[in-house]
Design brief:
This protein is mainly α. 92% of the residues lie in helices and 0% in strands.
């Protein structure tokens, strides 16, 4: 196996990981900033105020983005199997 192919597969795998995790991380970041701003304006420092909305938003984002995530991983797996069959 050529080292160039290995690097190419690794690079593609990292891009797939970024594409799948970015929407979830951005949703968590966004709701975290909104909650932090709310807490700073009202001086409410309750820990459950940060935890519960983040969990709800992240679960909602996962459910909403699940078709995109499944398509992304299936496309990557299909291309990986195609490469494996062409090597052997």
């Amino acid at each position: 196996m050529n080292p160039t192919i290995v690097v190419d597969i690794g690079t593609e795998a990292l891009w797939v990981i970024l594409k799948m995790s970015a929407p979830i991380m951005l949703a968590g970041l966004g709701i975290g900033l909104v909650i932090a701003l709310f807490q700073a304006l009202t001086t409410i420092q309750e820990m459950t105020l940060t935890f519960v909305p983040k969990i709800i938003v992240i679960f909602g984002t996962v459910i909403f983005m699940l078709p995109y995530m499944i398509t992304t991983i299936v496309d990557f797996t299909t291309s990986l199997f195609a490469r494996m069959s062409s090597l052997g």
